[in-house]
Design a protein that fits this description.
Blueprint: H1 7-17, H2 22-31, E1 42-47, E2 50-56, E3 61-66, H3 73-88, E4 92-97, H4 98-103, H5 105-122
Parallel strand pairs: 3-4
Antiparallel strand pairs: 1-2, 2-3
InterPro entries: DUF559, Endonuclease_DUF559_bact, Restrct_endonuc-II-like
Organism: Algoriphagus ratkowskyi
Pfam family, one: DUF559
Length: 125
């Protein structure tokens, strides 16, 4: 489940759980404690050398929330490499802009459920 994440990654994930961004807090409030169709999500979940904002192990599904820094070309390259690494581990990633999460939370939840359905259908789950 953690794909050999280092103790340092676990330590950093714990720190991040103690200081969620506003968009992470908004989404966490809606998906925590199996509130979204009984799906279990973890926040700031260590995987390999990364920390996923949210992760549903049952469907190997990660959610990343992106601030404005992710609009920069060098960060886009890093994000693409990160997604390729996670895909190689069998983890599906979806990204949302922070402002979209805050302004259109219900739409984000719908898109998350659609992604889960797509995963279920593609794996006949």
């Amino acid at each position: 489940m953690h794909h050999n994440a280092s103790p340092e990654i676990f330590r950093r994930a714990k720190e991040l759980r103690n200081r969620l961004t506003p968009s992470e807090s908004v989404l966490w409030e809606r998906i925590r404690s199996n509130r979204l169709n009984n799906l279990h999500f973890r926040r700031q979940h260590p995987v390999f050398k990364y920390i996923l904002d949210f992760y549903c192990h049952q469907y190997r599904f990660g959610i990343e929330l992106d601030g404005e820094i992710h609009d920069q070309l060098d960060q886009k390259v890093k994000d693409l490499a990160r997604e390729e690494d996670l895909k190689a581990l069998g983890i599906h990633i979806v990204r949302f802009k922070n402002r979209f999460v805050i302004q259109e939370t219900d739409e984000v939840l719908k898109q998350i459920l659609m992604e889960i359905e797509n995963i279920k259908n593609s794996h006949n789950l």
